[in-house]
Amino acid sequence: MLTLKQLRDDKELAIKRLAKKGVDAAPVIAKIEELDDRRKAIQAELDNCLAEQNAAAKQIGALIGQGKKEEAEEKKRFVASLKARSGELSVEHQSVSNELQSQIVLLPNFPAEIVPEGKTAEDNLVVKLVESYTALPENPLPHWELARKYDIIDFDLGVKLTGAGFPVYKGKGARLQRALINYFLDCNTKAGYLEVEPPVMVNEASGFGTGQLPDKEGQMYHATADNYYLVPTAEVPVTNIYRDVILDEKDFPVKMTAYTPCFRREAGSYGKDVRGLNRLHQFDKVEIVQLSLPENSYEALDGMVAHVESIVKSLGLPYRILRLCGGDMSFTSALTYDFEVYSEAQKRWLEVSSVSNFESFQANRLKLRYRDGNKKINLAHTLNGSSLALPRIVAALLENFQTPEGIRIPETLVPYTGFDIIG
């Protein structure tokens, strides 16, 4: 969530920055200014009213002591009227404050200066391309056909048990899933990330804290009886561990990693791009989260990008890194890098990770702060990244490493799978 200071110190700059994300912020900021001015005016009147009330209350005792009962009664009636007015002002102040808050949360985060201009994924900037293509059989099969051929993923059984987008992994397919999760977690913990195992259901406050609510409630599975949400990513519960927490400068950086199943409705998704593992309602993902001092957060982002790249590279897959344009960025992000691996069988790039710096946007919603050397309280910065999302990694491994004998397992994964080929 943006702060009032960010919006009011330079309104024109705020409007210009948000325009890069395709948002016409002018009417919302005008409404915010109007509500903020009204809130301040109500607060000033309330403060004056309370001050008068306290002064008059002190006078009542003196008047009674002087035997001036009528004047004392008159003063009591005056105090009663002030109390009534104070009550009205308090209610009005709360109402205006709530409306102000509801307007502020409509606005996305400012994009960083280096975010490219653009409206769609076609405008994203390729910042790195690493080609490591393998020789494939003639007419290579897409992963959904390979999964059926080797009986490792059953999409039809998933439809029977739940519905489309909930595959069942079997045999070596299930072991490959478990191997990737363990491998990714080991890579992250070796890099200094503390492993945590969070709940996979969160409350509304957690969804609001990381920006999924109220922006993405339509994409989240909602357990209405208890008002809990199934997590779309481990970022939500892990970052919320530090909701309403004040850290000290010496506590940074905070680095955490977690594996969770992730649940996304993916409403509106259809067509060839959702076949097989390309887009699921339930999938496995390992996440990394960092909390940083503001002055160090972009150095932390670079470190996270390098870390994710090292994992992708170790799998031997062709990949590229994109800097997302303003129109393709998430609501909460200030700067995002996407990792994509190439599917030779599908002839397309598959996104496997997003690494983002949210600056203070999430921290403001979370009330995640720190105390600096001068004992001043400031907002921290938050970052997160997929390290990695499994479905499209599995799709790329199956498709890019298929051979006439079977699917070759990358050397780095063999100690985790216990086998070197699926055949």
Unreliably modeled segments: none
What average pLDDT do the residues reach?
95
Largest sheet, strands/sense/barrel? 8 strands, mixed
The overall strand count is: 19
Q: What's the helical proportion of residues?
A: 40-55%
Calculate Rg over CA atoms. 28 Å
List key phrases describing it:
423 residues, alpha+beta, 3-stranded antiparallel beta sheet, 13 helices, 19 strands
Describe the 3D structure:
- The chain is of the alpha+beta class and 423 residues long.
- It is 41% helix and 21% strand.
- It is built from 13 helices and 19 strands.
- Strands 1-11-12-13-16-10-9-4 form an 8-stranded mixed β-sheet. It has a 3-stranded antiparallel β-sheet with strand order 5-7-6. Strands 8-14-15 form a 3-stranded mixed β-sheet, with no helix packed on it.
- α3 (26-65) packs antiparallel against α4 (69-104) and α5 (143-149) crosses α12 (390-400).
- The radius of gyration is 28 Å and the shape is elongated.
- The mean pLDDT is 95.
Sequence-ordered SSE layout with sheet pairings:
Layout: H1 4-8, H2 11-19, H3 26-65, H4 69-104, E1 125-130, H5 143-149, E2 153-154, H6 155-161, E3 168-169, H7 172-190, E4 194-195, E5 201-202, H8 204-209, E6 222-223, E7 228-230, H9 235-240, E8 246-248, E9 254-263, E10 282-292, H10 297-314, E11 319-323, E12 335-343, E13 348-357, H11 361-366, E14 369-371, E15 377-379, E16 381-389, H12 390-400, E17 402-403, E18 406-408, H13 414-417, E19 421-422
Parallel strand pairs: 4-9, 8-14
Antiparallel strand pairs: 1-11, 2-3, 5-7, 6-7, 9-10, 10-16, 11-12, 12-13, 13-16, 14-15, 17-18, 18-19
Helix pairs in contact: 3-4, 5-12
